[in-house]
Specification:
With 120 residues, the protein is an alpha+beta fold. It contains three helices and six strands. The chain has a six-stranded antiparallel β-sheet. A hairpin with a 2-residue loop joins strand 1 and strand 2. Helix 1 packs across helix 3. It is globular, with a radius of gyration of 14 Å.
């Protein structure tokens, strides 16, 4: 991945990885659907992810956000986040603290959706 990903985008991907480990220290990582994926330690299936991440040309794609209530993400729409069919399109230049808040919502929602609890 390092060879073709621009340095700013690679930095953002690494920053997200760091944020996820801060928010959910027990996170497990694996590649799924050719994307880096973050999973709860209890996950037994590839569909039980916290989310998948993809560096797209103009935004970061966060996948695995299906069955979200629109209300959960309204606060983020003013920051240019678009959502479609189980994914979020997040601008690369989004403020780090706001991005971390978004990740918190995604992680908590998917833990609950898959029937896992937070244990730390």
């Amino acid at each position: 991945m390092d060879e073709w990903l621009e340095s700013g985008k690679l930095f953002r991907m690494k920053l997200i990885r760091k944020m996820v480990h801060e928010l959910y220290p027990e996170v497990m990582e694996r590649v799924s659907y050719a994307m880096p994926g973050f999973y709860p330690k209890e996950a037994k299936k590839s569909t039980q992810q916290l989310f998948l991440l993809m560096a797209c040309q103009k935004w970061l794609g966060i996948y695995g956000t299906q069955v979200y209530e629109e209300e959960s993400f309204k606060v983020f729409q003013r920051f240019g986040i678009k959502s479609e069919k189980g994914s979020l399109q997040v601008p690369y230049d989004m403020d780090e603290s706001i991005f971390k808040d978004l990740l918190q919502i995604v992680i908590e929602h998917n833990l609950k959706r898959h029937g896992f609890s937070r244990s730390y």
